[in-house]
Amino acid sequence: MRAPRRSLLGLAVVAVPLLLALLGPLFAGAPGPRAVSFTLGGGHWLGTDFVGRDVWQQVLHGGRTVVLTALAATALAYLVALPVGLAAAVTRARWLEELLMRPLDVLLAVPSLLLILLVASVFTPGAVGLALLVALVNVPDAARIVRAAAAEAAARPAVEALRMQGESWWRVAVGYVGRSALRTLAADAGIRLTGVLYLVSTAAFLGVGVAPDAADWSVMVDRNRTGLFIQPWAVVVPALLIVALTTGTNLLFDAALDKKGRRP
User: Fold this and answer.
1) pTM here?
2) For 91-110, what is each residue's pLDDT tens digit?
3) Which of 141, 151, 185, 249 has its CB 3.0 to 4.6 Å from that of 89, i.e. a possible disulfide?
4) CA angle 132, 249, 262 (to 5 degrees)
5) Are the CB atoms for 209 and 125 separated by under 8 Å?
6) What are the Cα distances from residue 196, in Å, to 24, 203, 239?
């Protein structure tokens, strides 16, 4: 599939969950009276959930937390990883590179979800705390990707020429090395956002960062799975929205990188 068609397909796939997540609460309205759990019909388009709430209304309310938490966690991870990785790649001081990267290797050795669950067992993070935790576990891997992508560009003769001209660290690290690694970092950003969405959804599924009965797509999948064969829409719809969000994001990033790579 060519890049323009892939872009359109990715945009079409990701538009539905994004619009529901960002604009859904504006159209959800006030919650109505609760009905019988796991029923279809009775004025409920998608039936009711495990406590008798309207599933469609829960879907409209449930995406904003997932999307905003994932976007915030990805941005925060790169906010830390970019300067650390660039500094480690550009510096000539071996001790500084070791000082920056070795502590991150310790964090990298701990499974991401395990670290989140360990911290959550001591503290009770909200949506902001969950975003910080997910960002923290993504920093080591992101910093290593940044350093690996920037190290090749930092070894080029052009970098030495910039240094001999007296260019600032910002001009060397960001203006040349960072721009040279941009394609690799863009590809990593698409993959990382998908991984962050998965991690945020898994954490929410396990009850980390959200209330057990919160209007959240991941929580809906968890709490309504007992009635899957009675009222499947309470599980299928939020699950499909999460899948569409991750698949559409990957398609958009792939199309953008493919289009950029074909330019003369």
Assistant:
1) 0.77
2) 877 888 888 888 888 888 88
3) 151
4) 125
5) yes
6) 22, 10, 16
